[in-house]
């Protein structure tokens, strides 16, 4: 087994050491957002306390420093994704904005009456609703790719759905509810045979396993900084160069132009053409620090640790009387979604919170995925690389007490 010094990593994340409701915090809500290592806080603080400046245009030292910090974030994101060129990395607010950008720009230019967008039933609403919006406008159709009972995407159905009208496939790299990790490269190759482009939602993938957009040959790839140890408000859209270059600007303003006149306005080259207005400079500095931190870890060992932890959690949770895990067997990313007989998911989350254990309850912005299991809400525990076996054991012990009626479910 690959060794991973989780306790050493934990020392880098100050928030892991706080108390909540009189108990040490067990942060098992990483699917919602991840905690930040000290290095990220320091990078953001450095910008705010010494480096505040706008980028790209100033003729002074601090503008140069800020530009370096900003572009460092872009370069680290390109490196994380295996992108050939940082100019193919567009800064956005997050995954949601990245998908909306593609839908509103690429979609408006490329979708017409009767065209089809395939969206898997495992998608987060952010990789579904933007397609519904643009489809309604362009008279195109959104078609769902169904799931198998174990949470995998039905590949036979996918093959049947692909056709001459398919323009785009919207595909998650890791489901935030089921933990499913689809065969992205294979599904992309199939889509390409039909002339369709593929947009992959990497929000839940990037913190859990290495990604390579060149190897998988996907056309667009989106992720959010805050799910990979960086601050909120900064995220990334990667795209293949010819696709990005052909996309009409979707927002106009400063930063994105080459020259502006009332007769004629021309646009800056990539990536700035798709980045109107002042960007999230401190966020990009934080993203650079987060991705550099991740790069400094032994990724194979980290992934092996997460897999051991997830397998342990799946076994421990399955032993709780009346607990039903949703989706497939472990081996997926660390997402454990479950319901407990006779309880409301929100009550369970509140009871866990009183014991210092943070999990999420609700529909997880993936109502079709839960509906495939006949559910409208569930509890989700989602470990990250800095969680340890003790935290999972605390969760399991608390759930045993809840199942036995030993914890009050209402205040
Ligand atoms: N896709 C998936 C799979 C997610 O888990 C999330 C966040 N829960 C998103 C997209 C949306 O990310 P954001 O809210 O950061 O835009």
Automatic annotation (TrEMBL):
It holds the Pfam family Aminotran_5. GO terms for biological process: cysteine metabolic process. The keyword Lyase applies. Keywords: Lyase, Pyridoxal phosphate, Transferase. Signal peptide: none annotated. SUPFAM superfamilies: PLP-dependent transferases. InterPro entries: Aminotrans_V_dom (IPR000192), Aminotrans_V_PyrdxlP_BS (IPR020578), Cys_dSase_SufS (IPR010970), PyrdxlP-dep_Trfase (IPR015424), PyrdxlP-dep_Trfase_major (IPR015421), PyrdxlP-dep_Trfase_small (IPR015422). Its cofactor is pyridoxal 5'-phosphate. Its EC number is 2.8.1.7. Residues 27-395 form the Aminotransferase class V domain. PROSITE patterns: AA_TRANSFER_CLASS_5. GO terms for molecular function: cysteine desulfurase activity; lyase activity; pyridoxal phosphate binding. It catalyses: (sulfur carrier)-H + L-cysteine = (sulfur carrier)-SH + L-alanine. NCBIfam families: sufS (TIGR01979). Catalyzes the removal of elemental sulfur and selenium atoms from L-cysteine, L-cystine, L-selenocysteine, and L-selenocystine to produce L-alanine. Belongs to the class-V pyridoxal-phosphate-dependent aminotransferase family. Csd subfamily. This is Cysteine desulfurase. It comes from Kitasatospora setae (strain ATCC 33774 / DSM 43861 / JCM 3304 / KCC A-0304 / NBRC 14216 / KM-6054).
